[in-house]
Amino acid sequence: MRVRPFWFILALATALALAAVVFSKSASVRAIFFADAVTLETKGYRLAIKYHCFRCHAHEGAGGISNPGSESSEIPSWQGFSFMMSMKDESELREWIMDGVPHRISSSRNYAQRQLTMAVPMPAYRQHIDRAELDALVAFYEAVSGLVWPDDPEAEKGYKTARDAGCFSCHGLGGRIDVVNKGSFAGFIPAWSGSNYTHLVRSEDELDQWINAGTCDRILNDPVAQFFQERQILKMPGYQGKLSEDQISSIKYYIGWLRDENAAGKVPQYQL
Q: Is the pTM of this model over 0.85?
């Protein structure tokens, strides 16, 4: 049976329109196209939620959860020195995650007794996670713990300026986490350190526009981009008149440090 061109074109147009509606309405559908584009730290953050790490270590590993019978009476904070001091290098962090404790500690004389006295021992995830998931969890821990920290006074100043301005509430911990944003094209706000950042910021001039006005000319002149920008729940605020030129320059410097893989301080410092 021969299909008339008119009906074929009408069916094709209807299918494309329906696909566009589904794509625009479903953040989960759009996220499929960006699943590999989120930062490794974002993947680690999502895995920490999936495997209930924050139930014991509190949100973003902030700590403060009681653990009667342990030496400190609390489950160690990922952001504190007590947990950092319990490992010598990255391999021991991986042992903590996979086996619940590094071999160096588990082989000590009084380890078994200490395990019995504490209410909440660290679980082992060796049978539950794969190598890629382990790498992501390590990357997230290194970010949240401060093991990756600017060895550059200007970059450190920029980090603190961005933190005090509230930037990390939307761009994630240290600008490293892709934060969920329903209605946006990708379904999340791109991290400053990720590949999606370059889709929105292609030059220093565009970065200035984003910070000052909450958007840039290229996005304003793109009907598709505008469609999503107008419908997304979280919208980038404009900081013109709210931040000084020095503060804006400081934040831009930190973003530059964050995106430079060879910048001073990018190698995790386990030996504090």
A: no
